[in-house]
Design goal:
Distance between the termini: 40 Å
Oligomer: single chain
Number of helices: 8
Strand content: under 5%
Number of strands: 0
Largest sheet: none
Shape: extended
Length: 240
Amino acid sequence: MNGPSAGGRRRGAAKGAGHGPAAEGRKLSRSFGWLAFLGTLLVIAGVVGLIYTGVATLTSMLLFGWLLLIGGLVALAHAIESRGTNYFWLGVVVAALNLAAGVVVIRHPEGTAEALTMFAALLFLTGGVFRLVGSVVVRGPQMGWTLLQGAFGLLLGLLVLFDWPHSSLYVLGVFFSLALLFDGLGLIAIGIGGRRIVSMVSDRLDDRGGGRPDDRGAGRLDAPAPATDSPPKAPGDGQK
């Protein structure tokens, strides 16, 4: 009786080990590990981009152009699927603009970088001026920080604008590399923190389990009967 029941318990424990909380914890830990690995690659790419800003600028422009091309093709496919509706020609126009912009960016990455750098400088200038004027007019509780942000944006816009078009060789590359760097650091933090949380939860589950179920069941079923000091009674001892 004990042999088959113990074997069944072992098979059940093996199945539970493959699909239980421990297996799910290992899967989550591996997923968080891959996330941290991807973050490490992004950090390395960001550091390399900060060192070689010109290469990072051209790379970001080429990526931007290919994204525009892919977006244009997807928009064109959606427009073809929605032919016969009122939005067909609007979808065709949007797809054509994306495709044309993608071709221009890929064929002329340097000129695109100069145009986008000029746009970024004007954006910094207008943003800084609006923050400065708004903080002086409103005079809110965060007036000091708003003034500081406005002055920083205005100064950054002037620096980029005065050095244009030479600034187009490094401004966009620096921004692109910083974005990669901070995104990579965020992914590394999420991956390491997730692995720690999964490890803590797995340890708690192991502590609550207190051992394997088959060992506890085998101990209860196979335990010998308690010994007694009194001799066994004869069949007629209790009868008068």
